[in-house]
# Entry
Amino acid sequence: MSDDIKGKEKSLITRRKFLAGLTAGAAASALPAGEAGAYAFEELFRQHYKRLTADELKDILAKLEEEMSFKYGKEVHAKATPPIDNTVFGYALDLSRCIGCRRCVYACVKENNLSRDPQIQWIKVLEFQKGNNKWQGLEHSNRYYEPEQVPEKGRFYVPVQCQQCKKPACVKVCPVQATWQEPDGIVVVDYNWCIGCRFCMAACPYGARSFNWGKPSMPKEEFNPEIHYLGNRPQYKGVVGKCTFCIQRSRAGKYTACVEACPVGARKFGNLMDPNSEIRYVLENMKVFRLKEELDTNPKFFYFFSMGTGVKS
Amino acid sequence: MAIDAINGIVRTVVTGSKEYKAWMGFLSLLALVGIAFVFRQIDQGLIATNMRDDVSWGWYIANFTFLVGVAAAAVVLVIPYYIYDFKPIGEIVLIGEIMAVAAVSMCLMFIVLDMGSAERFWHLIPMIGIFNFPQSILTWDVVVLNMYLVLNLSLVIYALSKTYAGKSYKTKLIMPFIFFSIPAAISIHTVTAFLYLGAPARPFWNTAVLAPRFIASAFCSGPAFMLIIFQIIRKTTKLKIEDAALHKMAEIVTWCMAVNLFLLGSEVFKEMYSATAHIEPFNYLWNGLRGHNQLVPWIWTAVIVNSIAFLILIVPSIRKNFFMLNIACTFIFIGVYIEKGMGLIFPGFAPSTLGDIYDYMPNSMELWISLGVWAIGLLIFTVGAKICIAIKTGEIGHADPSAHH
# Structure
């Protein structure tokens, strides 16, 4: 994979210079050359998300919309919707239903504008052999299963994504506070503040963080124009990204993309503070567990078996 | 006088034997090759390395970890000379400190090279950026490494300028800083160990014995390297280095290697006797795991050469034979480089937290860049040591070469 990347990225022209060059030639362009240069300059010295004033943020989002509209040829809406009061998001996954089809993985990639080449996926579906007693520590997983059809006999599947820990190991170790936990429990990354040291990746027990090893890329037509500053806006080369419970959707009162994509209804999502929510129903009526509880990271991502032991396969 | 001093220093650096010029030329060439590859890495991003999400730190961090140890080892000279007033080491203690400066510089270069977005380094500057201190251990490492660099650089410059003027540098002003450099050296290595051992997600690193083991192996590898260099220096320059100084260092290396091997044994016992699921990375390193065994020959080489070196060193009459001593030092350097570099960093990531095994080995670009960093570090050391020797032997300045301070 890295070899094609090398081929494609031989050019020394950066994205910014390329943009500036293009815009200089196109009279009808959205970004005049001087402005693009100023934007790049602004980006280099941009402050941490939490230190931006409301006006600065508004300006940045407007610029982001302009830049992305130009780059992807679509009308883009960039938001930074704040957390909703009295809301903490939680997630539950029914392992007895999951069939390992990876539709959640692909829906997530598309929704969150994740790089296709190099390939980045925020959800990893692990396959285990039934009867293998080493699955809860996730030691003997197979992430690269490729059968004709799923589910395969004698196998079961455990999708893993960011567990949105209440005590996130990744947040603690970040030297510049580029990643933090929002009041609604979502752990976010400021892609303009991350220095790319990858200490968070060493600290995360769930492999939930992905680094942009190369320049992210995706086909124009697949670009999702509804973006959030702390979520699914396109990331940069050299920064870390992660699942944000689709912050652009969840804070707008929608289900995450993975919940919607799941063909068997294995994924449950909602507000942990709302006693009538689906997630509260699961927590109160199912025997739930969390991954690697011995580390006491306190995930807000729960697993359960709705059908006990009588799973058909 | 300042002009004279600068002239003298420049003259010292640019003149020298054919061997000196060849050595400097060779290092410069390696440095340039490394720098050329750095441009490629900046252009493509870290995807040009072999690191990936499953093994997110590799060869650069391995070298960084090893070199923190080399830097810390200057105290092996500072303690006997300044605390126990062991005179023979007085001639070489400054060279040890110059080595520390060079090693910390290499550490900082490796860290910057490993950063995905190094142009944002200002985010780390307190007040201007956000310095997540004391929460993030990485910020502690930034503090202690920079402090240690400034401390050693200041001590060396102060001592050399005093010596240049023909005065003693062991003044009341400087002694507190010299004493402070001892805990500072311990701290850089302890904090670096804490980076790893503070990660419960990585059972291979999450062991309290890591910090003492780091210190023990640092006090082997750093002095081993210096023992060889001091022999080269006394053959090629006018600086007199007594056998007693080298024998004292060799003795310290001996006992540090004993402690290092003992701590390794404790680690092996704990893992093998407990035999929990957390033994997997340990097995990956020592026996191979599910068919992945690329590190096995390396780690066994390391433990065998370290043990042979220890056997050579443990017998005083054998370690006083310089031929045998040099074999032991070479073995220790190789052994600790493997053990603390790839033997420590790579298995921390294999299997990954989700159970994947990605067999990481650096690619040629990573190797060339790392060689470039080493070359720059050795250039810093060579230039520093040459100036230091010229001043100490009275080639430049007003030092009386026959008098010890």
In short: The first helix of chain B runs from residue 2 to 14. The CA atoms of residues 146 and 347 of chain B lie 28 Å apart. Chain B touches chain A through 50 residues (CB under 8 Å). Residues 10-392 of chain B form one domain.
